[in-house]
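Quarterly update from the structural biology core.
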Amino acid sequence: MKVLKVFLFSFLNLGSLFAQVGGDNTYEFLNLTTSARISALGNVLVNSYDNDVNLAQQIPSLNHAGMNHQLALNFTNYYAGIKFGSLIYGIPSSRFENISVGMKYLNYGDFTRTDEFGNVIGTFSAGEYAFYASTTVYKRASFRFGTVLKAVYSNLEAYNSYGLLGDFSATYEFKHERTYASLLIKNAGFQIKTYAHESEPMPFEMILGVSSRFEHAPLRWSISWAHLEKWDLSYTDPSESTVDPLTNEEIVNNYSTRDKLFSHLHVGGEFLLSENFNLRVGYNFRRRQEMALDLYKHNVGLSWGFSMKISKFHFNYARAAYHAVGPMHTFSVLTNLSKFRRK
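Predicted structure, tokenized:
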């Protein structure tokens, strides 16, 4: 009960978090997408009432009995030798139908330790971990409400931090239109132990997502509006000069209303070709705005992937272009452990 009261207090004081977007917060690794399916779709909210247990960690109100005994293993080979991934499992529950539990990790690798003179004196490592449980706590007709509780541990050399966060989602089903809409309140919480005796803001976010499947075509489309809590997501590079070298006048970056609007949008589509093979494509507008180079935009912001079922396993792959330096590759394997039991 005390934990619930603390979360309610945090939720009622979210106004202090609204000005904080990526790069200003601690525990930013929580926003990394470990599912190949979600990554291929441009990091949209995937509102699909199927048995993919990865979706229950993104939108907890999608938990249901079909995810019982589902196991998901996810891995991403990130840039500069950094690796992250997750493990998720669906536990049957007589009260909640299903409780999805799991862990996410981010391994920064090993670093060289030096003294103040540059002499090598050893190595050190850094990593961050989240342990979570997700379930649907309320359902009535077409409406469902779910929550995720996350315990976070961060180890950055000699600095450690612990935190407790929660996600809350509400999903509504438009039954006759094969359409789902979800509102997600993400990463509301606090640090239990800080790195250096100073509290830091959480990577809070509000997202609205809609997914729908066409009646006479094998296509499910999804669209999400990210960071509803803040309108202007435009980014100014602090390394860029703010003064024109020729005129000595201040350079003002004017972002259009269209740019500000599209920076919130993620779109994706799943081509449901058969029960054994699907194709996916997505586009992340903000990623392209912030990460593409002026002279070499290439396909930054675009992502694609596929799903293939072989025997009792679903293999998923995603290629997401974050930067001109190269794409990011994500792999997921899903299976239902109950199918391996002897009859």
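The domain at 2-340 is CATH 2.40.160 (Porin).
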